[in-house]
From TrEMBL:
GO terms for biological process: DNA repair. It comes from Faecalispora sporosphaeroides. SUPFAM superfamilies: Uracil-DNA glycosylase-like. SMART domains: UDG, UreE_C. Keywords: 4Fe-4S, DNA damage, DNA repair, Hydrolase, Iron, Iron-sulfur, Metal-binding. Residues 29-176 form the Uracil-DNA glycosylase-like domain. One of its GO terms (molecular function) is metal ion binding. This is Type-4 uracil-DNA glycosylase. The keyword tRNA-binding does not apply. The keyword 4Fe-4S applies.
Length: 196
């Protein structure tokens, strides 16, 4: 399936592949730079995201934006943000495995178009689905794994940090590690670049 962004966003916007379509206000497709080096993937839209049609615009999103800004990242310029499921699970419950599986092809197509060098999973649900089904995020956050030439890392979900602010320094360390990896990417000359 080689769709353009426009085709992908418009077909995804009409998706009825799982029951979440019955209760959504908006499909929350994704936001950001469609050629970013780094993609952040959350769990699913909450109430504010469902109403506004954009990922991470509630309290957790405000914290995420602050952490991103501290490492020179910004949702509108140098990253792309999406979720495992694009429609809000009622009462913000975890998305069910069948809902995640139904939605995953949309995310796969987004990743295929962005072609990020690094993918950051925000929280347990995204980390289990994309990185490691048995991940223990409290122990394994901040570790980089290579998957098909893409670096992947899981960090604590900003909503979890709001519930447990003691974990903010640990999560911030993950963002610093990410910054370092991104800086290293840009130090390496691209094929065809001459160092003189
Ligand atoms: N939490 C998520 O995982 N994604 C959002 O878009 C908002 C809150």
């Amino acid at each position: 399936m080689n769709m353009t962004w426009e085709e992908l966003e418009s077909t995804c916007g009409q998706c009825r592949k799982c029951g979440l379509c019955e209760t959504r206000t908006n499909v929350v497709f994704g936001v950001g730079n469609r050629s970013a080096d780094v993609m952040f993937i959350g769990e699913g839209p909450g109430e504010n995201e469902d109403l506004q049609g954009e990922p991470f615009v509630g309290r957790a999103g405000q914290l995420l934006d602050k952490m991103l800004a501290a490492v020179d990242l910004d949702r509108h310029t140098n990253i792309y943000i999406a979720n495992i499921v694009k429609c809000r699970p009622p009462k913000n419950r975890d998305p069910e495995p069948g809902e995640q599986d139904a939605c995953l092809p949309w995310l796969r197509s987004q990743v295929a178009l962005v072609r990020p060098k690094i993918i950051v999973c925000l929280g347990r649900v995204a980390a289990m689905k994309l990185l490691k089904p048995d991940i223990k995020i409290t122990r394994e956050h901040g570790e980089f794994y290579e998957r098909n030439g893409v670096l992947m890392m899981a960090t604590l979900h900003p909503a979890a940090l709001l519930r447990n602010p003691n974990n903010k320094p640990a999560a911030f360390e993950d963002f610093l590690k990410l910054r370092k990896r991104l800086d290293e990417l840009h130090l390496a000359p691209a094929p065809g670049d001459f160092p003189f």
